[in-house]
Each structure stands twice: as C-alpha cells, then as structure tokens.
Amino acid sequence: MRENYSYPLDEDWNNDEIITVMALYNAVESAYEHGIKREDFLNKYRSFQQVVSMKMEQKRLDHEFETESGYSIYKVFKQCQKIPDNEKVRVQYENKY
C-alpha cells in the first residue's frame, strides 16, 4: 500500500459521478485494510458501472488505481464472487514494489 496517492478521475464527470467513483475507490481501500460487507461493495461497484459503463474504461481506471495505490478493484470484485452474501470481503495486499 502506498500513501498519499491520487485517484484516477475523469474531468468530464459531474460532482455526483465523482462521488460515486470515489465511493468505490474507498470501498476497495476498505476491503484491503479492514474488510467491507460484500453487499456494500457490490452496491458501490454497480453504481460505478453506471458512471463508467464501458469495460475498457473500467479496466483503465482499475489499472491506474492499482498503479497508484496497490489496490485492485477487479481483485475485490473477484473475491466477492467467492463468498456468501452476508460475509465481509477482505483482500490480502500484495506488495509489488
């Protein structure tokens, strides 16, 4: 985990869209740092998908976010698919640096 990193944002997003995307980034951070309820994460992920509907753009943002923070949206999402509904998702941080 890196400290003091910047979040990848799109200058064309309005305030509500920025808040939605930031909520997902914060949920990913929670999944790595102390865990987050599976359904809470998935709700934020679905909202993110409404703001960023193109898969290619989602992948680009995930890559930029992981490069900056060390945290992966995709890895948290995949972990959510492996656990029951009322569980907390917790992802192990892998130091690549």
Automatic annotation (TrEMBL):
Name the Pfam families for this protein: UPF0223 (PF05256)
Q: Which SUPFAM superfamilies does this chain map to? A: BH2638-like
Report which superkingdom the organism of origin falls in.
Bacteria
Hey, what's the signal peptide range on this chain?
Answer: none
Instruction: Provide the protein name.
Output: UPF0223 family protein
> From which organism does this entry originate?
Companilactobacillus keshanensis
